[in-house]
Amino acid sequence: MKQQQDRKIGFWMALVPLVVMIGVMIFTVVKLEQGPHIPLIIGTSTAAIVAWRAGFTWKEIEEMMYKGIRLALPAVVIIMLVGLTIGAWMGGGIVATMIYYGLQIITPAWFLVTICLICSIVSLAIGSSWSTMGTIGVAGMGIGLSMGIPAGMIAGAVISGAYFGDKMSPLSDTTNLAAGLTGTDLFDHIKHMFYTTIPGLAIALGIYAYLGKRFAENNIEVADIAQTAKVLQESFLISPWLLIVPLAVIVMVALKVPAIPALVVGIVLGFLAQVFIQGGSLVGGLEALQSGFTIATGNVMVDDLFNRGGLDSMMYTVSMTIVAMTFGGILEFSGMLQAMMDQLLKVVKSSASLIVSTIGACFLTNASCSEQYISIVVPSRMFSRAYRNMGLHSKNLSRALEDGGTLTSVFIPWNTCGVFILGTLGVSVVQYGPYAILNLAVPLISMLYAITGFSIVKLTELEIEKLEEEELEEKRMDKEVNLA
Questions:
Q1: Where are the chain's structural domains?
Q2: Which of 19-33, 172-186, 273-287, 371-385 has the highest mean pLDDT?
């Protein structure tokens, strides 16, 4: 491929594909209420035209797209394994057991704290904030309102708990995206997020405890929770022994077992639990892995929660990732992202300003593109080289992407997350925004760490040498492809 500097794309031309994509995205997602795939394809087409006008051949543009897709392949593999894990753990009664014991801790005096913790447990188990809010969150809204607690407070506690699990669970698609797209080990990424997310949760729980004091004397209706627990007991064999499965995965993580083998062990154990403990058939176990677990209990909340998972359920995220990376591939390898980065880096003079800029860019992407996945995908490609050039470890970038992208999506009314929460919990951003404490606190904590330098990890000399070797090998492979 001819050197990019020979066909350099200027800053204003580089902005054209991004502006087109954002404009189409806002119209399609907000106005027409459709998915983000087609706007991304339109953005990719626009980027291809700009690159072609700059002198790149179609063969070169195709290779840019393929290179972008290859960058996302590790994340795609993990995402598919996550779908298998969810299906296996649903069918094996593992998630049911975790939820059942979580529901037992609800008490009237600590409702806001309790519902936040329960949502944290559920979302950690299933890796999905939306499923948690759409099931446990809905039940929590009904119970909390019967206590006289304002809807915004309840929704804020639900959202904080749901997004804690979504951010920290190895089953979460956004967690895997942030790790995979930055080339960070999944569990290193999760452990690095402890520094910002655990203090954020502690702050949230402290504020919910304070707010809940005024409602301590109110009566609580626990019928819905009791009914849910009863349905779980009737539908699954609930046993603390099933908690060995997630515990086994946690132990492997502690022993630094790579993510893929750890997830595979969790999948196998979940499948065996469904067949030999829950009494399911081999066919039912395989169907749970492929198309997701299905159950009909007659309880709408339980059915909505457990009818999910499987490989097929992840294909939307996989296809979105592939399409987004074709867009990102052209932007990056044609030099368009570099043209934009050159302008940004004129004002970014330190690691602190780089991390703060990353968090800000994620929020702006959430606002402009209306989709939290894109707030991870696009900034990850825009900032990765700048982190490397400043000698910062990739897990600083992956954490900033989650702190600024995953969590801030709930504050944009036209973002898919804001729209989902309004439709599911019946509460607007204006109402729940001040009480989504975790989502507010974590980005601020992350920026504070960036300014003070706390928990910011630098690359070692050995890691820098390894990255330089990888870059040389990549350039060598590109040269061989072009000669061929």
A1: 76-314
A2: 273-287
Contact status, residue 28 vs residue 312, Cβ threshold 8 Å: no
Asked whether the beta carbons of 215 and 110 are under 8 A apart, the reply is no
Number of Cα atoms under 13 Å in the Cβ half of residue 350:
9
pLDDT attached to residue 138:
77
Query: How many separate helices (H) and strands (E) can be counted in the chain?
Result: 24, 0
* Rounded-to-integer distance, Cα 203 and Cα 164, Å: 12
Q: Tell which phi-psi region holds residue 296, choosing left (phi > 0), alpha (psi between -120 and 50) or beta.
A: beta
439-443 long-range Cβ contacts below 8 angstroms, 24+ apart: 439/159, 439/160, 439/163, 439/407, 439/408, 439/410, 439/411, 441/199, 441/200, 441/203, 441/204, 442/196, 442/197, 442/200, 442/403, 442/407, 443/359, 443/363, 443/403, 443/404, 443/407, 443/408
The DSSP call for residue 403 is: I
Tens digit of pLDDT for each residue in 117-172? 989 988 887 787 887 887 788 778 877 776 778 999 999 999 999 999 889 988 88
Amino acid, res. 112: L
Q: What angle do CA 477, 483, 484 make, to 5 degrees?
A: 90
| Sign of the Cα pseudo-torsion (392, 395, 399, 400, in order) | positive
CA–CA distance, 79 with 135 (Å, rounded to integer): 23
Tokens found for residue 189 = 């990424």
pTM, 2 dp: 0.72
Nearest by Cα to 163 from 185, 187, 196, 212: 196
Spatial contact of 361 and 383, defined as CB atoms under 8 Å apart: yes
Phi, psi of 458, rounded to the nearest 5 degrees: -90, 155
User: What single letter denotes the amino acid at residue 477?
Assistant: M
Please give the distance of CA 115 from its chain centroid, rounded to a whole number. Answer: 21
Instruction: Identify residue 309 by its one-letter amino acid code.
Output: G
Mind listing the pLDDT tens digit for each residue in 435-446?
Answer: 999 999 999 999
DSSP string of 110-125? GHHHHHHHHHHHHHHH
Rounded Cα gap, residues 273 and 263, in angstroms: 15
